[in-house]
């Protein structure tokens, strides 16, 4: 409980710091006052300019909150896939779900570019379809006799991801013929939260909060699933139904994150790992811890991406890969013995 | 909400089962009445675990039916069956090792609402299962900090938290030392008496099975080779055929049933060679 209170406080502090930092520095105290004034909770004198207010409300806060939502979504998706595959290395990026969502989203963008903006809603829907299809494919390929051994899982994930990567390149080459600026898609693929409209933040918020809440409500069932399929079934779990639901919700969360921020890898691996160290492996505690931790982690990673080398923005996916790659290798090395079979 | 208060008979009627083309059980029929303590014994590969899994509806028979009361177990939902039948698996391998209490709470899966929280009745059942198995003291510890005997009691607690009428155990004494084997079997027998629980356990060790169970089912040749109280089963004509070899029966004044041992053959090759070299 205390770790979750501390994480909530850390998230609020991270959001305020991230909203204050940038080319125009705005004191954190002003940010708090601005938000309180907007919410009608404070009526003091205004110590900030109208420009500052525009920067905070129209540029920074939507971006920072999107980063928080994407972090929570990817971390929760990581926990779900790890429970489904009974493997701590199953991250939505590593098992190809993100790649499938990205291909779907890129297809949507191409269609939108070809047929105009009436097709913009195709992007998240195709991202979701791509995510579900890839997860089912990798899961089917990796399963051997009711288990998901690490070797087949990683191999299936890598092969499917690489194939999807080339499919993506082909798509970009073809879409170039329609005069679409492919550089934009490349930058999006490297991962990053761009400034988006409040309406989009709200839609993303509803989707991600819904998915995370369902996952949290399933905490005990996910514990039961971790015992293995036969013990879980004899304890009274409808295993097939839960597995289907986990694939749908995990893919939905991944697709929402990819639609908003492109390919941001390793979040679903790093955050659940640290959350388990903080609050133990029981999903009733792990899911809220991973949600809060993931939101905080991605707000800070985005802050770093934005401010480390101004005026250049480092793509967010590069920041998380530099943090997550080494941890992934460390976990793989450490789990050699436990996942030998 | 499923309820497991009824005490029902579990019947296996003319069940046939095989993996691919290899038959394991053919036309097997057994009935387990409320409160009975039954051990399934037999040589390796005789189908002990297969019969247990058929009883738990974890495997589906090719022919025949498994019934709980008068209903085919296949018509039960997982949750409804879990409220009648608890299973203690041979091995519980978890990717992330849960704490004891979290694991025992998994026994309440069948009773969870859609929102997945535990009600007062659930917490009560978990506390009670921990107390009945003597595991309350380490309910906050992680399962991999426990000894083999303690782990086995925790897994029994999880099955008990389901509040079943029938407890199926797959090799409950495997990997345990002699004293711990006795403790676990004493615990199972005591639970059976207190709650009129039916017990079915697969057992490797014939002598332990004869000592702790009222009825032995011997599997051999894809079917039931013998079924009855230990005094009728622990005989040369029954066991030598089932296990395929000569056995030695030792009678002791303190036991009604003889102890069965493999016959030690006079060592040929190796030891004669050693003596010749001397």
What's the helix and strand layout?
The complex is a heterodimer of chains A (341) and B (278).
Chain A: H1 2-20, H2 28-38, H3 50-85, H4 97-115, H5 122-142, H6 150-176, H7 182-189, H8 198-217, H9 219-225, H10 229-234, H11 239-261, H12 267-279, H13 283-307, H14 316-334
Chain B: E1 10-19, E2 22-32, E3 37-42, H1 48-55, E4 63-68, E5 71-72, H2 78-82, E6 85-88, H3 100-105, H4 120-132, H5 148-161, E7 166-170, H6 178-195, E8 198-202, H7 206-212, E9 215-220, E10 223-228, H8 230-233, H9 236-243, E11 247-250, E12 259-262, H10 269-277
Parallel strand pairs in B: 3-8, 3-9, 6-7, 7-8
Antiparallel strand pairs in B: 1-2, 1-4, 4-5, 9-10, 11-12
Helix pairs in contact in B: 4-5, 5-6
Which features characterize this protein?
heterodimer, A: 341 residues, mainly alpha, 74% helix, globular, disordered C terminus, B: 278 residues, alpha/beta, 6-stranded mixed beta sheet, 4-stranded antiparallel beta sheet, 25% strand
Specify the overall morphology of chain A. Answer: globular
Order of helices and strands of chain B: EEEHEEHEHHHEHEHEEHHEEH
Return residue spans of chain B where pLDDT drops below 50 for at least 5 consecutive residues: 272-278
Strand residue percentage of chain A: under 5%
Largest sheet of chain B: 6 strands, mixed
**Strands of the largest sheet of chain B, in order across it?**
6-7-8-3-9-10
Query: How many angstroms does the end-to-end distance of chain B come to?
Result: 76 Å
Give the fraction of residues assigned to helices of chain A. over 70%
Into which percent range does the helicity of residues of chain B fall?
A: 25-40%
Mean pLDDT of chain A: 85
Largest interface here, residues on each chain? A-B, 29 and 39 residues
- Count of DSSP helices of chain A? 14
- Content of β-strand of chain B: 15-25%
From the alpha carbons, calculate the radius of gyration of chain A and give it in angstroms. Answer: 20 Å
SSE succession of chain A? HHHHHHHHHHHHHH
Low-confidence stretches of chain A: 337-341
Oligomer: heterodimer
**Ends of chain A: how far apart?**
36 Å
Arithmetic mean pLDDT of chain B: 90
